[in-house]
């Protein structure tokens, strides 16, 4: 328990000293300078830019501190800029230079931490994806994460063709990572300097840098997400006997480039920017980022948004996790329109850990444990507040807060803990009772009861409030209550599925309510995929070797599902732009579950677009969407104008002579050519609000489409024209207008619906969210 208490004290210490730390102590800052001069990086221009940046630093850093005149990270391919150690005053001084777009503290971002692909196939009703699995693909996914474990069977290159000649990347070596660690599957690997917090002897909170040493993954997150996106087909995959089956990525023949930019403690924003810049230069087609801040930052202070914009400008799609801070609204991150933002859902599989009470009652709790307990023996059962330590608040004890329990009273018992808002996470509760020699833990938590927690060999089960009340009633009504917790069993063909995961972050987007975010939903609960061999005490069942696969949950797992789906579509439609692929996936999203009813959230209510985006991905149907919405660079530059960024700054960002429309305001954001529609404010007293969209026909040239409207009560929706005949128009493009009006009697708040264009073979669905005021 000493290590746990030390961590808690260190955390409290950091909180105490951080407000009084001098703002003139040098800290890492990002200096963003817009689009690159030459757009191709390298050569003399790169050397000249680097020298110019150093000269810029020399002009503001005192000569006696000349050691700080250095570049921590340098960006030169798709965009310009650098990161450096600056004081607050120096940063403010730099922000006034004409060539600088923004200067901001280097943010610390967090990791947003099989059967899933088979489930997606079955839900589409089409099994034809099998014919695509053996195509040799030259599509390249760049995964920015914690690195990669190259020995995993998911990254074997048997049967994969030669590395694409257009690839310009490298395979960086280290003490534990050789050139031979890369192959025709893992065609590139890079690692970076990662900055961490550390406590110095003088008690100042400072940043120090260390070199991670190699692209090798020592966390497991990067290996897991990479294999979900593009792992090869591996038979007999399982996690210590659970989730047995074939593990495969969304595009098994797609190439992988790994960019190790994160440690288990987080990711430096400046390093993420460097990894994006390198990935674009190396020649990836898609960048997958299961990372984000705990809040949505402003556009010009958001490193992922900045990098993703320039990736899109260079023709590279960026797919991002939406965050794990649901179910509250306004929690979705990575919400700029040029980012493909992913929510998380369940699949039709669950993991149950059975609780058997001394009175014979049996309850199915959630959890993943490999304990050796059996139904033939029970153990004393106690509510945590009954075994509280002296002077500990009962609320702390109920939540199994560190230091709140009497270890003598806990030892040998199964402890029942609760979870209240703001309490410590399950992993800490487990460490607390395990450290006090408990026999097991039953957690009462309504919110996360359907999200299985992995407790290793320690007996654990989680239940909701109804079952929890029955267990507490048994404890209170019995002189010597007892119980046992059985090892986990797998439940297949669960219904309904998919369901929006409780933790998945929700819209509206903080940047603007006039772009619908998240965009789409994909599996993100208990996903089986490759991992690093974990030898940590208590994680490996007795007599077993460390597993090569793991079960993990989060929008981190949902994101690479979409990255893999996008790579799959790219492998068939080589010439499609990233916005066309994004549109194809969005307009074909699934909105019904495996019992044929509308998708729901974890509260069993019908899910809305602010929770799930347009619905669950359907990669097979997206291969043939009929129509697509092409969102162009002009749309994104207009977005900057409407968002309120000056024309001068936009020209610096884009290196174009772009001119903003004369009438630029936030309401016009709804008009950019996006595959969904969101209106943040619709005044019931101001008539119709009109938005326009342009569609491109990628199906039969002779097709004729008819529109239909699914509108909720209180909202009037009209489409003009109602029909589009591409044969008569003799063009592949057509525009239409949608008019929205709130009825006077309509209640305030968001209304949801969809417009669908159909030609008898395709149903092109455009989801909308309209906030009536």
Count of domains: 4
Sheet with most strands: 8 strands, mixed
Work out the helix count: 18
The level-1 CATH class of the largest domain: Alpha Beta
Poorly predicted tracts of residues: 1-22, 39-43, 125-130, 196-211
Give the overall average pLDDT: 89
Q: Distance between termini?
A: 54 Å
Q: Mind telling me which CATH architecture of the largest domain this is?
A: 3-Layer(aba) Sandwich
Class by alpha and beta content: alpha/beta
The value of Rg in angstroms is: 27 Å
Shape: globular
Keywords: Hydrolase, Protease
Protein name: CO(2)-response secreted protease
Give your account of this protein's structure:
- With 773 residues, the chain is of the alpha/beta class.
- Strands 19, 20, 22, 23, 24, 26, 27 and 28 form an eight-stranded mixed β-sheet that branches.
- The chain folds into four domains: 24-106, Alpha-Beta Plaits (2-Layer Sandwich), CATH 3.30.70.80; 110-347 and 499-579 and 606-614, Rossmann fold; 349-491, Glucose Oxidase, domain 1 (3-Layer(bba) Sandwich), CATH 3.50.30; 627-631 and 673-772, Immunoglobulin-like, CATH 2.60.40.
- It starts with a helix and ends with a strand.
- Helix 6 packs parallel to helix 7 (303-313) and helix 12 (555-572) crosses helix 13 (578-587).
- It is built from 18 helices and 40 strands.
- Strand 19 (349-357) and strand 20 form a beta hairpin.
């Amino acid at each position: 328990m000493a290590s746990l208490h030390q961590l808690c004290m260190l955390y409290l210490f950091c909180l105490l000293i951080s407000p009084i730390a001098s703002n003139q102590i040098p800290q890492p800052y990002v200096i963003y300078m817009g689009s690159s001069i030459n757009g191709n990086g390298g050569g003399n221009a790169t050397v000249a830019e680097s020298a110019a940046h150093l000269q810029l630093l020399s002009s503001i850093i005192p000569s006696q501190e000349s050691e700080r005149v250095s570049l921590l990270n340098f960006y030169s391919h798709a965009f310009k800029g650098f990161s450096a150690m600056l004081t607050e005053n120096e940063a403010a001084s730099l922000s006034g230079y004409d060539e600088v777009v923004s200067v901001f503290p280097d943010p610390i971002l967090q990791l947003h931490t099989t059967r899933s692909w088979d489930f997606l196939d079955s839900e589409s009703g089409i099994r034809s994806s099998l014919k695509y699995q053996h195509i040799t693909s030259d599509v390249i996914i760049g995964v920015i994460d914690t690195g990669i474990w190259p020995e995993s069977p998911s990254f074997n290159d048997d049967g994969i063709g030669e590395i694409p000649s257009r690839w310009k990347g490298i395979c960086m070596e280290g003490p534990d990572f050789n050139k031979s660690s890369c192959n025709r599957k893992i065609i590139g690997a890079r690692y970076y300097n990662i900055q961490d917090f550390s406590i110095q002897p003088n008690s100042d909170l400072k940043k120090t840098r260390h070199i991670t040493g190699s692209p090798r993954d020592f966390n497991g997150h990067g290996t897991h997400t990479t294999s979900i996106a593009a792992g090869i087909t591996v038979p007999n995959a399982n996690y210590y006997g659970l989730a047995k089956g074939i593990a495969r990525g969304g595009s098994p023949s797609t190439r992988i480039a790994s960019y190790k930019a994160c440690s288990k403690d987080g990711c430096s924003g400046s390093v993420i920017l460097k990894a994006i810049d390198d990935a674009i230069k190396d020649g990836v087609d898609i960048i997958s980022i299961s990372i984000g801040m705990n809040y949505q930052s402003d556009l010009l202070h958001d490193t992922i948004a900045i990098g993703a914009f320039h990736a899109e400008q260079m023709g590279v799609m960026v797919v991002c996790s939406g965050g794990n801070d649901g179910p509250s609204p306004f929690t979705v991150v990575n919400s700029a329109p040029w980012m493909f933002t992913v929510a998380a859902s369940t699949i039709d599989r669950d993991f149950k850990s059975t609780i058997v009470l001394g009175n014979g009652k049996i309850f199915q709790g959630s959890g993943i444990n490999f304990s050796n307990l059996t139904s033939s023996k029970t153990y004393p059962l106690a509510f945590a507040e009954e075994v509280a330590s002296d002077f500990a608040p009962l609320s702390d004890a109920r939540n199994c807060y560190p230091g709140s329990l009497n270890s003598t009273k806990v030892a040998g018992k199964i402890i029942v803990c609760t979870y209240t808002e703001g309490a410590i996470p399950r992993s800490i509760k487990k460490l607390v009772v395990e450290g006090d020699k408990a026999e097991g833990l039953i957690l009462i938590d309504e919110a996360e009861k359907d999200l299985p927690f992995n407790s290793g060999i320690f007996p654990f089960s989680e239940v909701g409030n109804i079952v929890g009340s029955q267990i507490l009633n048994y404890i209170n009504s019995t002189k010597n209550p007892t119980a046992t917790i059985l090892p986990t069993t797998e439940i297949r063909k669960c219904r309904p599925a998919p369901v929006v995961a409780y933790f998945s972050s929700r819209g509206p987007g903080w940047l603007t309510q006039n772009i619908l975010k998240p965009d789409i939903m994909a599996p993100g609960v208990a996903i089986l995929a490759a991992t690093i061999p974990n030898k940590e005490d208590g994680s490996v069942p007795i007599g077993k070797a460390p597993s090569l696969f793991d079960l993990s949950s989060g929008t981190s797992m949902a994101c690479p599902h979409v990255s893999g789906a996008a790579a799959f579509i790219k492998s068939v439609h080589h010439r499609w732009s990233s916005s066309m692929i994004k549109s194809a996936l969005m307009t074909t999203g699934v909105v019904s579950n495996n019992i044929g009813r509308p998708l729901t959230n974890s509260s069993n209510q019908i899910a809305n677009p602010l929770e799930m985006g347009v619905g669950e991905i359907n990669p097979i149907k997206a291969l043939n969407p009929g129509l697509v919405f092409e969102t162009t660079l002009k749309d994104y530059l207009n977005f900057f104008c409407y968002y309120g960024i000056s024309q001068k700054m936009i020209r610096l960002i884009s290196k174009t002579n772009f001119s903003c429309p004369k009438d630029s305001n936030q309401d016009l954001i709804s008009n950019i050519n996006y595959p969904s529609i969101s209106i943040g404010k619709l005044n019931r007293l101001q008539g119709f609000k009109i938005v326009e969209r342009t569609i491109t026909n990628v199906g039969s040239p002779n097709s004729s489409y008819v529109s239909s409207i699914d509108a909720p009560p209180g909202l009037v929706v009209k489409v003009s024209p109602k029909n589009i005949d591409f044969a008569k128009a003799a063009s592949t493009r057509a525009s239409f207008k949608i008019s929205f009006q709130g009825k006077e009697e309509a209640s305030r708040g968001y209304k949801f619906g969809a417009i669908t264009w159909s030609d008898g073979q395709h149903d092109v669905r455009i989801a909308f969210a309209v906030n009536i005021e």
